[in-house]
Amino acid sequence: MVVGKIKTLIFGAGGMLGTELCSVFPEAVKLKHADVDLGDREKVIDTIKSIKPDVVINAAAYTAVDDCEDNQELAFEINGKAPGYIAQGCAITGAKLIHYSTDYIFNGSRKEYFEADTPDPINVYGQSKLMGELNIIKNMQNFRIIRTSWLFGSHGKNFVDTMLKLSKEMSSVKVINDQFGKPTYAFDLASKTEEIIGLAPGVYHITNEGVCSWFEFASAIINNAVQCTSKEFPRKARRPEYSVLVNTKTTPMRHWREALAEYLKLKKISD
Predict the structure, then answer these.
(1) How many CB atoms lie within 10 A of CB 141?
(2) For the chain, what are the domain ranges?
(3) CATH, range 8-156+183-209+243-254
(4) So which residues are the catalytic ones?
(5) CA-CA distance, 10 to 55, in Å (whole number)?
(6) How high is the pLDDT of residue 143?
(7) Of 20, 28, 97, which is closest to residue 58 (Cα–Cα)?
(8) Distance in angstroms between the alpha carbons of the first and the last residue of the chain
(9) What are phi and psi of 229, to 5 degrees?
(10) CA atoms within 13 Å, Cβ hemisphere of 148
(11) Is the model's pTM score more than 0.90?
């Protein structure tokens, strides 16, 4: 018996993670923001029904954490309701769903978080992403929810590029030293996704290894970072003090310092 190729559909193909996923799954049907309105339930379901994919990967999200506080309706539509629509389409067609969530579904009161720990988000972004998780779980069984954190990479705004830009413009760059997490390279996460598709349904914590503060992360990128506290650098959205995701289900990815070195090397070549 000859098994046919797995047909894959990617939502959010134009974003930082989505672009990397397109490289990992070159034959996938790739849909960007302009191609389908994820807030339109019927359109989302009809799109999945017409394509008939074996696997749907949802990399679409509204990830501007502070902006989510001002645009709550949009945050809950894209991050909260749309994953439920996608799940309904997958349930109808029998497709597997791979969906990406965030460390920000936790409140940060503990040093680390496991897959089965109870979420308690402290900002709108985290609340909207948790709604997305719950809507998926409510509508289907054959899902893999991948929680990740502190994503960086090409093809989108991210902390590494921001630090590089500010370092050139300022004599010193203030970076907070009292929030801790795990930086994750979008290329590594996209590559790992291929493995997750073949694993059992459920929730996965997938990040690069190694815990650091934002200041430690910045210091690995630029040489003129200076420490400050969260109180000295207030933001619109509260951030968890600790959002360290523990992976108990798969082999660990490489350390974030190794991944960062590769990314910086690639940027130097492309600049």
Answers:
(1) 12
(2) 8-156+183-209+243-254
(3) 3.40.50.720
(4) 125
(5) 9
(6) 98
(7) 97
(8) 49
(9) -95, 165
(10) 29
(11) yes
